[in-house]
């Protein structure tokens, strides 16, 4: 409030020479001064009444904006530092990913190799079983064939040796054994 009163006095003293140069009627001079004082008083009152809270609120808003800007700057610096740190570690992360990919590839190759070996072993065992079954069937067929051959050969030999007298002797011996 004192500032505004001081301001009004300064304006009055600076405006006084302007009014003093006017050599016209003295009553008009008094009205000019009165008009000036009313205007200066009204301006001083309005500035004192509305200006203080306005400038105080403006000052608070400016301080708040400065603090918000400081926080935003700090957050931006933190983000920038985080991005810089990530970029610095990017090569290490890429190398780690490549190493992990290589390990996974080796593991997959090993798993595929084991699976292939198991399938080969399974196929080989199945083939061996089929070969064994085929060999057994061939041996049985060979035994049957040999038996047929032996029976056929024996039949031929018996027929070749069988005469009607030998046949009669065999039948008589058989009948004697039955009695």
Summary keywords:
mainly alpha; 95% helix
Folded structure, characterized:
The protein has 179 residues and is mostly helical. The chain has one domain. It has helices at residues 2-20, 26-161, 164-178. The longest helix has 136 residues, at 26-161. The termini are far apart. The relative contact order is 0.03. The model has no long low-confidence stretch (mean pLDDT 84).
Question: Could you give a quick summary of the protein structure above?
Answer:
This protein has 179 residues and is an all-alpha fold. Helix content is 95%, strand content 0%.
Mean pLDDT: 84
Uncertain spans: none
Mind describing the biggest β-sheet? none
Total DSSP helices: 3
C-alpha geometry: rod-shaped
What share of the residues does DSSP label as strand, in percent? under 5%
Give the number of domains.
1
- Helix fraction by DSSP (H/I, runs of at least 4): over 70%
Order of helices and strands: HHH
Q: Report the span from N to C terminus.
A: 164 Å
Structural class: mainly alpha
Give the C-alpha Rg: 64 Å
How many beta-strand elements? Answer: 0
Strand-helix topology:
Layout: H1 2-20, H2 26-161, H3 164-178
Helix pairs in contact: 1-2
């Amino acid at each position: 409030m004192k500032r505004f009163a001081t301001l009004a006095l300064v304006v009055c003293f600076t405006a006084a020479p302007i009014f003093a140069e006017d050599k016209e009627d003295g009553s008009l001079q008094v009205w000019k001064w009165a008009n000036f004082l009313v205007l200066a008083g009204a301006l001083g009152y309005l500035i004192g009444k509305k200006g203080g809270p306005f400038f105080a609120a403006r000052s608070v808003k400016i301080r708040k904006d400065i603090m918000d800007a400081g926080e935003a700057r700090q957050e931006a610096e933190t983000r920038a530092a985080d991005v810089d740190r990530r970029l610095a570690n990017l090569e290490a992360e890429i190398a780690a990913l490549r190493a992990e990919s290589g390990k996974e590839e080796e593991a997959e190759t090993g798993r595929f190799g084991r699976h292939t070996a198991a399938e080969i072993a399974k196929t080989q065992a199945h083939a061996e079983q089929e070969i064994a079954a085929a060999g057994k069937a061939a041996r049985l067929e060979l035994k049957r064939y040999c038996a047929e051959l032996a029976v056929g050969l024996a039949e031929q030999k018996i027929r070749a040796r069988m005469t009607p007298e030998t046949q009669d002797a065999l039948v008589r011996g058989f009948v004697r054994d039955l009695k």
